[in-house]
Amino acid sequence: MTSPVPKVFDVAVVGGGVVGLAVARECAARGKTVALLEKEDAFAAGASSGNSGLGCTGYDAPVGSLERKLLRRSIQLHQELYRSFGLSHEHVRKCGSLVVAWNDEQHAELPQVLDENRLAGDNEAILLSAQELREVEPALDHSARGAVLCPYEAVVEPWLVPMGYAESARRFGANLFLRSRVASASRDANANVWELKVENSEDASLGRSQTQKLLTDAHAQAHVRQPLHQTRDDVWSSPKLRARVVVNCAGLWGDELERLTKEPAAKSASFTIRPRKGQFVVFQAPKGDSIPRLIIEPVATQFTKGVIAWTTVYGNIIVGPTAVEQASKTDRATDIETVQRLEAWGRKILPGLRNAKVIGTYAGLRPATEHRDFQVSVSRPGWVTVGGIRSTGLTASPGLGEYIANLVDGIFEPERESSTSPSTSSSSMPGVSAAAASPAPRPSQRLEPVPSLQTLANEYRARGDGCVTLYGRVHRVTHPISSFGMETV
Ligand SMILES: Cc1cc2nc3c(=O)[nH]c(=O)nc-3n(C[C@H](O)[C@H](O)[C@H](O)COP(=O)(O)OP(=O)(O)OC[C@H]3O[C@@H](n4cnc5c(N)ncnc54)[C@H](O)[C@@H]3O)c2cc1C
């Protein structure tokens, strides 16, 4: 445990995915006492363990949406944030992407893609003819008709980023708890405090179903090991946790947590999670210069960015994700038909893959909802709902952390006002700690450098238990891009 445990936390964050970790870090950095509760035995084990690990610029997010706004804000924050996590250019590769047209219809859409990039503020985006495209990306099949070059999209090591948030949050004083599932929430209106009922996940079915399902996937089975209790974060062992503000960052379970709350929410905050599965195929890096240097994207549709191909920071080539809605929140199996389709597409657009070996597959579930945009609001007194962070949450996490911490500050703010004048606000918060009411000047922080990918891989292979040491702690590697990479780099 990082800090002494207060009787009542200023903020309880439910969910230790990349978004919850970013929120916990930002609130702790602003001087709040923070508890983060994660039901699994590792952080970043939900949607955050099944993404593509790409840094998006948000040009294809709807104009005026919160998602677009937070993606653009995040781009301003990434460099300094990643540096403070001890990440280097080896862990985050700013290589740019190509939105490639493969037929006449897509070719006709490229000028619009260019306009969208420029509208988003990326004036360096350019249109490439088929000939120019071959020069820029020789690994692509010559049937490509042209492309838009988006210079700011990036390939990120997708597990190291949430781990950076977690360690940074701890050092800002946040208390992070694993295997601690929030089973219900009720509010003591007199004390203006939320009481969360917490169960240890060993006793709860929700906690294990996801990893069991993952292990039914034959491909994943070889690569995802689960040494339980390897991380050194504590379990919240008391049945109740009290906090003045709760932030629901429960991802795929966010709608269920909202319903478990014995307090009606504002109508605008209602959403239903519709898990959207994305499957991926992982190729071993082919020899020579047939490896794509840029991220190869199709022209996006309103529903999805489409199937992408890119080289990970470890050098493997990935083709995916698909986007298919399903009812299950835990079924992350890949299916042979989809895998074969992705494999064939990869070998078609990247001739260098024709003889390359497929070393595995994986799938992730996007916490999509019936709404296109992120759903973030103060939905009840002292309760922040964060829902539908479906396709860009890794990239948008710094902006989300900042935006949500501002909402939290706004909940505490009336208290400061009410000490001088009576307040009628329903979110007035008597009993706010001095730290929360008058945030300390934000301390600067630099974590120690993250080891090179080769060093991480050496340890991963030597240990053989699916774990590596980061910032002096042993962590289970939850992201398949990282575990495949560490096995093969
Ligand atoms: C196929 C796919 C591709 C993607 N590609 C990209 C990409 O290239 N770039 C990008 O920026 N984003 C991408 N994303 C999106 C990104 O991964 C998500 O937006 C992000 O991971 C969401 O993070 P989260 O913290 O909101 O959710 P999660 O990571 O799901 O975290 C929620 C956490 O809450 C926990 N939890 C749930 N209920 C409870 C409870 N009652 N008590 C305690 N804990 C609980 C869960 O165990 C989970 O760990 C992709 C996603 C997918 C699935």
Structural topology:
Layout: E1 8-14, H1 18-29, E2 34-37, E3 54-55, H2 66-84, E4 92-93, E5 97-101, H3 104-119, E6 126-129, H4 130-136, E7 146-150, E8 154-156, H5 160-171, E9 175-178, E10 180-188, E11 193-200, H6 205-216, H7 218-221, E12 234-235, E13 240-248, H8 254-260, E14 276-283, E15 295-297, E16 308-311, E17 317-320, E18 324-325, H9 336-349, E19 358-366, E20 375-380, E21 383-387, H10 393-418, H11 434-437, H12 453-463, E22 467-470, E23 473-476, H13 480-488
Parallel strand pairs: 1-2, 1-13, 2-9, 5-15, 9-12, 13-21
Antiparallel strand pairs: 3-8, 4-8, 5-7, 6-7, 10-11, 11-13, 14-17, 14-18, 14-19, 16-17, 20-21, 22-23
Helix pairs in contact: 1-5, 1-10, 2-10, 12-13
Residues 14-20, 37-40, 45-48, 50-54, 56, 181-182, 249-253, 257, 278, 321, 364-367, 389-395 line the site of flavin-adenine dinucleotide (FAD).
Walk me through the structure.
- It comes from Hondaea fermentalgiana.
- Residues 419-439 have a biased composition (Low complexity).
- Residues 415-449 are annotated as: Disordered.
- Residues 10-407 form the FAD dependent oxidoreductase domain.
- Pfam families: DAO (PF01266).
- Helices cover 31% and strands 23% of the residues.
- The strands form 5 sheets. Strands 1, 2, 9, 10, 11, 12, 13, 20 and 21 form a 9-stranded mixed beta sheet that branches. Strands 14, 16, 17, 18 and 19 form a 5-stranded antiparallel beta sheet that branches. Strands 6-7-5-15 form a 4-stranded mixed beta sheet.
- The chain is globular.
- By secondary structure, the protein is α/β, with parallel strands linked by helices.
- The chain has 2 domains: 8-53 and 159-273 and 371-454, FAD/NAD(P)-binding domain; 88-154 and 275-366, D-Amino Acid Oxidase, Chain A, domain 2 (2-Layer Sandwich), CATH 3.30.9.
- The structure holds flavin-adenine dinucleotide (FAD).
- Flavin-adenine dinucleotide binds next to helix 1, strand 10, strand 19 and helix 10.
